[in-house]
Amino acid sequence: MEKDKIMIDYKHRQAGHCESGATSNLFNFYGVEMSEPMAFGIGNGLYFSFLPFLKLQYAPMISFRNLPNVVFHRSMKYLGVDATVIKKFKEPKESMTALDQNLEKGIPTGMQVGVFNLTFFPPEYRMHYNMHNLVAFGKEGNDYWVSDTVMELPQRISSEDLQRVRYAKGAFAPKGKMYWINTIPKDMDIKAAVEKGIKKTVYEMIKIPFPLIGVKGIHWLAKDLKKWPKKHGNETASFYLGQIIRMSEDFGTGGAGFRYIYGAFLKETGEKFNNPDLLAASKMMGNAANRWREFTYLGARNCKNRSKPEEDYGKLSDMLHEIADMEKEVYVKLDKIKI
Amino acid sequence: MEEESNPVYKNQAYGQYRELLYSYGTDGKFEKNVGFHGEADRVTLQQAWDLFNDRIEAARQKVKSGKASPILYYMEKTLVTPMDLSMHAGIMIWRVKRHLKPKVFSRLSGKTLKKYAEAFNITLDQLKNVD
User: Fold this and answer.
1) Among partner residues A57, A164, A300, which is closest to B43 by beta-carbon distance?
2) Nearest-CB residue to A260 (from B23, B38, B79)
3) What is the average per-residue pLDDT within B7-33?
C-alpha cells in the first residue's frame, strides 16, 4: 500500500559531529545554507569537562562536548528560530506516535538516542553512550529511515529497535527526547548569533568558577594524569589514558576533541565578516588542535607498548598543560574581539 | 574502490568504517576528508575491547564454576554496572547485587527473571543457561 511509505526529501550529508551535523542538515532542509562548523560554533558545541567521580565504561568521564541537545537548542535560540523540543514522554508508545505524526506532516524530526543497541552501528563502537543524535525522515512499513550524520549513508532501523535506543538507560538517558524546526524567520541575524555563541563559549571555557570545567579542567586532568601510574598501576593508568584518546578522537568529534571544527567555524566567520582577529584566532585554534592530535599519538603509543610509564606520563602531562595554555590564549583573544 | 586504496586497514578488526575527519594544515586551511580512523583510535579501541572481553570471559568462568549467577555474565556482556541494570530492570540496586549470588538466583520468581530478561533483551532460557 502507498500509505505505508512516507519519504521526506531530506538530504543526508555526513558530518563530524552528530548533533551539529543534524542541526545543519535540518537548516538546509528548510532552505538555509548552514555548514556544520557554523551550527557547532553558534550552538556552543565546544566544551571540556573532567569528572573523575563519574565512571563511563570503567574509566573516568572526560567530555569534549557540551551536554546533549545544547547545540540544537542554543543555535535555535540565538538565531531566533521557532523550534520545538519535547524533553520526555510518559510512555514509549506515545513518543513513537508523536514521531509518526510528525513524519506524516512532512517534518524531519531529530531524536536523542543511545548507541549501545543501535543496529546499524559498527559493533566496536557500541558502548553505552547516550548523547547520540539521529534525524528520522521516512517510514517504510515497520522500518524507519534515519539520517545518522556520522555514517556515510542514510540507514534503516526497525520500529522496535528505534524505540529501544530512544529509551536507553544510564547517564544522560534520552527518555525519548525529540526536536524539530517549525519555521525559520526570513531575516536571521547571523552576526548577532555568532557573537552570542562565541561569548557563551568563552564563558564556559575560562570563566566558570569550577575547577573541573573548561581550561581549568584540562590543567586538572594534566595534574591528575601524572599520578595515575602510582595510584592505579600501569595497566589501569594506560586504560584511563586510552579513555582520553577515545573521547577526543573516536566517532563524532571530527578529530582532536572538536577543536578542528571550532577552528573551521572561526575561519568561516572571519571570512564572512571580514574580521582579521577571528582569522588569527582560527589559526591559533588550529595549532592547538594539531597539538591535541600529537598528544593522542603519543598517548596511543603508550597504550600500545606501556613502556617507561613514569617518563611518558610526565611528558604527556606537560603537553596537556601546554595545550591548556594555548587554548586559553585563544579564548582570551576571542573575549576581546568585537565582531 | 576506496577500500582497496587503503589496504592497511582492510584486515584490521577495528576502525573499518569511514567517517568525516577534519584536519588543519600549515597553510591555515581546515579540510574535511572522509577516511578511516588513524592508528591512535584503533589502538585505544582495541585496548578497551580487550579489557571488556577479559571481563566477560572471567565472568563466564565464574558462572560455570558456580561462583556467580548468570546475571553477572550478562551484565558484563552488555557493559553495564549494577546501577544501570537496576534502572533498566526496575529492581532495587541492593537486590540486583544480591541476585549475583547463584543461590539467591536459583530461588528467584518468574516475574523477576522476566524483568531481567527484558532488560538484557534475551529469552528466559538464555538467562538461565550461559552458553
Assistant:
1) A300
2) B23
3) 64
In this prediction, what percent of chain A has a pLDDT beyond 70? Answer: 96
Give residue B19's domain range: 7-37
Cell of B94: 541492593
Same structural domain, A218 and A144: no
Both A196 and A160 in one domain: the answer is: no
Q: Is residue B1 part of a domain?
A: no
A137 and A28 housed in the same domain: yes
Based on the fold, state whether residues B17 and B60 are members of the same structural domain: no
| Beta-strand runs (E) in B1-131 | 19-24, 30-35
From chain A, the residues in CB contact with B51 under 8 A are: 58, 239
Examine the domain organization and report whether A170 and A230 are in the same domain.
Answer: no
Q: Are residues A129 and A113 in the same domain?
A: yes
The pTM score is 0.85
Is B51 close to A58, i.e. CB distance below 8 A?
Answer: yes
Residue B45 falls within a domain, yes or no? no
**What is the ipTM, given to two decimal places?**
0.77
Is B90 found in the same domain as B30?
Answer: no
Distance from CA of B44 to the nearest CA of A (A): 5
Question: Which positions ≥6 away from A248 have C-beta within 8 Å?
Answer: A64, A256, A257, A292, A296
Q: How big is the A-B interface in CB pairs under 8 Å?
A: 112
Distance of alpha carbon A117 from alpha carbon A113, whole angstroms? 9
Sign of the Cα pseudo-torsion (A268, A271, A273, A277, in order): positive
Judge whether A35 is closer than 8 Å to chain B, CB to CB.
Answer: no
Owning domain of residue A173: 2-34+82-183
Does B21 contact A at CB distance below 8 Å?
yes
Are A255 and B21 an interchain contact pair (Cβ–Cβ within 8 Å)? yes
Q: Does residue A49 come out as left (phi exceeding 0), alpha (psi in the -120 to 50 range) or beta?
A: beta
